[in-house]
């Protein structure tokens, strides 16, 4: 498997390009509008065709490059079926498996940050069927969790966020690597580490929010509302295809 993260240290945004070198098939996760050409160049340098583009959710802090990227590559634009957007996309569902040669992607629906949020559990059959890493979007960060207030109903969303983190992400093997959509510098969560990746075991041990019971988690996460991302309304309209 080829795997490369793309980090924007000015805004704390992370995107990922990975796939099967043997079959020449690749995907991009959470592409930023400003880096689309870089994703295409990297895939081409490894002899891979981009066939799938995933947004783990409709982003509120930056303009997604997914639609532009799918136009360039004729890839499928994948969002959870519940995504509230004004354009056609390839809907994905909880438990769905997508095969890119030896790279296997399992979709987990992990709402809480937004209703359509997903995480992507990735395996490489050349090393075995067990999961290798998970792209957690804005659900789980290094040392933090996604903010639940952007869609409103922050306490209800916080409870849902905790449930899906514990039931789906922390249920993965401890050695699974965690690759979020953001790290320190982003407005999509509070208390994020400047280290952009982690493991399930590390988050269980050191992410203090994950040690809280539901009531305490909801109080801490649902009641702590950081400032909204700059230009959020305009960004959402763009990413929803309404601007």
Structure explained in plain terms:
Helices cover 24% and strands 28% of the residues. The chain is α/β, with parallel strands linked by helices. The chain has a single domain, classed as Ribonuclease Z/Hydroxyacylglutathione hydrolase-like (Metallo-beta-lactamase, Chain A, 4-Layer Sandwich), CATH 3.60.15.10. The strands form 3 sheets. It has a 6-stranded mixed beta sheet with strand order 1-2-3-4-5-6. Helix 3 (154-169) crosses helix 5. The longest helix is centred in the middle third of the chain and has 16 residues, at 154-169. The protein is globular and about 50 Å long. It starts with a strand and ends with a helix.
Task: Describe the protein's topology.
Elements: E1 2-8, E2 13-20, E3 25-29, H1 36-45, E4 49-54, H2 66-73, E5 76-80, E6 90-92, E7 97-100, E8 103-109, E9 118-124, E10 131-137, E11 140-141, E12 144-145, H3 154-169, E13 177-180, E14 198-199, H4 200-206, H5 214-223, H6 232-239
Parallel strand pairs: 3-4, 4-5, 5-6, 10-13
Antiparallel strand pairs: 1-2, 2-3, 7-8, 8-9, 9-10, 11-12, 13-14
Summarize the structure.
The chain is α/β, with parallel strands linked by helices and 243 residues long. It has helices at 36-45, 66-73, 154-169, 200-206, 214-223, 232-239; strands at residues 2-8, 13-20, 25-29, 49-54, 76-80, 90-92, 97-100, 103-109, 118-124, 131-137, 140-141, 144-145, 177-180, 198-199. The protein is 24% helix and 28% strand.
CATH topology: Metallo-beta-lactamase, Chain A
For the largest beta sheet, what order do the strands appear in spatially?
Answer: 1-2-3-4-5-6
The low-pLDDT segments are: none
CATH architecture: 4-Layer Sandwich
Q: Biggest sheet, open or closed, and with what strands and sense?
A: 6 strands, mixed
Number of helices: 6
Could you spell the SSE succession in H and E letters?
Answer: EEEHEHEEEEEEEEHEEHHH
* Percentage of residues in DSSP E strands: 25-35%
Coarse structural class: alpha/beta
Taken from the alpha-carbon principal axes, the silhouette is globular
């Amino acid at each position: 498997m080829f795997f490369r993260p793309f980090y924007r240290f000015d805004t704390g945004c992370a995107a990922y390009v990975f796939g099967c070198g043997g079959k020449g098939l690749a995907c991009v996760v959470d592409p930023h509008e400003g880096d689309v050409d870089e994703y295409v160049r990297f895939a081409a340098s490894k002899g891979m065709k981009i066939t799938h583009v995933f947004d783990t959710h409709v982003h509120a802090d930056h303009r997604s490059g997914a639609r532009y990227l799918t136009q360039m590559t004729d890839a499928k634009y994948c969002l959870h079926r519940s995504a509230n957007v004004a354009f056609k996309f390839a809907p994905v569902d909880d438990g769905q498996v997508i095969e890119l040669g030896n790279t296997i992607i399992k979709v987990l629906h992990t709402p809480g940050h937004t209703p359509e949020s997903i995480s992507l559990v990735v395996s490489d059959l050349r090393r075995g069927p067990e999961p290798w890493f998970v792209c957690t979007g804005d659900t789980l960060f290094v040392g933090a969790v996604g903010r639940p207030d952007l869609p409103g109903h922050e306490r209800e969303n916080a409870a849902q966020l905790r449930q899906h983190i514990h039931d789906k992400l922390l249920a993965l093997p401890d050695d699974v690597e965690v690759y979020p959509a953001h790290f320190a510098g982003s407005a999509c969560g509070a208390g994020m580490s400047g280290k952009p990746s982690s493991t399930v075991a590390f988050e269980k041990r050191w992410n203090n929010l994950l040690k809280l019971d539901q009531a305490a988690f909801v109080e801490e996460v649902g009641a702590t509302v950081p400032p909204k991302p700059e230009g959020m309304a305009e960004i959402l309209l763009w990413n929803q295809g309404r601007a």
